[in-house]
């Protein structure tokens, strides 16, 4: 693996599968009597969050602590950033403090790449979401969750059909999932109103549709996306009610999902907008599993970037240290 994880494009299909396999092994260890591993003892992981987050920040914090790393949580609010400190000065401060890994979430697309390429810091950089660009660990945890529900697809997602529904235009989750799921062999369909599909989507390795009713019964996975109203400065759809009627996962659409199909959502959910309460809480909803699996995947990423010896190799061997 590279020293950083900035994009799904940093991973080959085999490397992505190794991360999923490592997460599986870490689950076995976490379910045992020893909940923590000493692997990263003495190392420092900094959560550098310029955007608000609950799930991602806590997930990375929990993952690092389970690997015995020291964790520093840095929020832009209440810090020197609110006084005008630049990313460069913040990075150099973290370098002086001896950070070994920096998990960055930023509103600007490319911020993680800028930090990694700048030379301001020697630490490994992990992208926890940058603008509308990517969110690679979310895609990895989504793939991990899908794989657990489709045991015949452990090494390849070929034959699986996935619909990603909603605000594709502003979604870094959608971009990372398209890259990873197609890399692993899945067929992906994007479903959204024309105003919420990116320019140039025709060149993406996907199909797309403007009609959820035509798609929902044909796919194995329905991944609903949050409507990111905080990133919308124009009217992308007439009303919330109209959007929900056309593109929300209602109870009637839920009933038409294929037998064995699952419902996903990266969170936080706008219940009643892109997903009904009935669908969010359905027996085939795996939303809470995604949250739990996020800790395992982020442990896997930290372990692989900082741990030295891989827990799982391409040959499937396990390092039993």
How would you describe this protein?
- This protein has 321 residues and is an alpha/beta fold.
- The protein folds into two domains: 8-134 and 290-306, Aspartate/ornithine carbamoyltransferase (Rossmann fold, 3-Layer(aba) Sandwich); 136-287, Rossmann fold, CATH 3.40.50.1370.
- Helix content is 35%, strand content 14%.
- It is built from eleven helices and nine strands.
- A five-stranded parallel beta sheet has the order 7-6-5-8-9. The chain has a four-stranded parallel beta sheet with strand order 2-1-3-4, with helices on both faces.
- Strand 5, helix 6 and strand 6 form a beta-alpha-beta unit.
- Helix 1 (13-30) packs across helix 5 (136-149).
- The chain is globular, with a radius of gyration of 19 Å.
- Residues 317-321 have low confidence and may be disordered.
In brief:
With 321 residues, this protein is α/β, with parallel strands linked by helices. The protein has 11 helices and 9 strands.
Secondary structure layout plus pairing:
Blueprint: H1 13-30, E1 44-49, H2 55-66, E2 70-75, H3 87-96, E3 101-106, H4 111-117, E4 124-130, H5 136-149, E5 161-165, H6 172-183, E6 187-191, E7 207-209, H7 212-215, E8 221-224, H8 240-247, H9 251-254, E9 262-264, H10 277-280, H11 287-306
